[in-house]
Amino acid sequence: MITYKPFWETLKKSPETTYTLIHKHQISSATIDRLRKNRPLSTSTINDLCIILGCSPENILAFTPPSPETKENDIFVQGNNSQSPYGIVSPAVLYLIRSAFLFQSIEI
Questions:
Q1: Residue 62: what are its φ and ψ, rounded to 5°?
Q2: How far apart (Å, rounded) are the C-alpha atoms in residues 108 and 96?
Q3: Average pLDDT, the chain
Q4: pLDDT tens digits for range 6-57
Q5: What is the pLDDT of residue 100?
Q6: Contact yes or no for 61/4 (Cβ under 8 A)
Q7: Helices (H), the chain
Q8: Given 3-state DSSP classes, what are the helix, strand and coil percentages for the chain, each rounded to the nearest 5?
Q9: Which of 2, 4, 54 has the alpha carbon at shortest distance from 25?
Q10: Neighbour count for residue 4 (Cβ, 10 Å)
Q11: Cα 45 to Cα 76: distance, rounded to the nearest angstrom
Q12: Rounded mean pLDDT, 68-93
């Protein structure tokens, strides 16, 4: 799981605030909300934050591997999980998505 806890610690140590990120550096309030909720960000946004704060990606995000008991796709199939922006995805749909990526039949 990726979290943005390091971002908040880095922001506290910097002269920047969420206000200056939004109004001076044109970081959207939606991006700040995504950081607060540990939602996905683009690498471009992470790059922008690194430039603004003068830091590297490890000062923005942290990755914690899932525990061995957690299945890879649990967040997709457990139902109405507030951590999942996608809701319920059936195993059949997951199979089709994986197949498409394995055979590179679709581009993203």
A1: -135, 140
A2: 15
A3: 79
A4: 999 999 999 999 999 999 999 999 999 999 999 999 999 999 999 999 999 9
A5: 59
A6: yes
A7: 5-13, 18-23, 29-36, 43-53, 74-77, 91-102
A8: 50, 5, 45
A9: 54
A10: 21
A11: 25
A12: 54
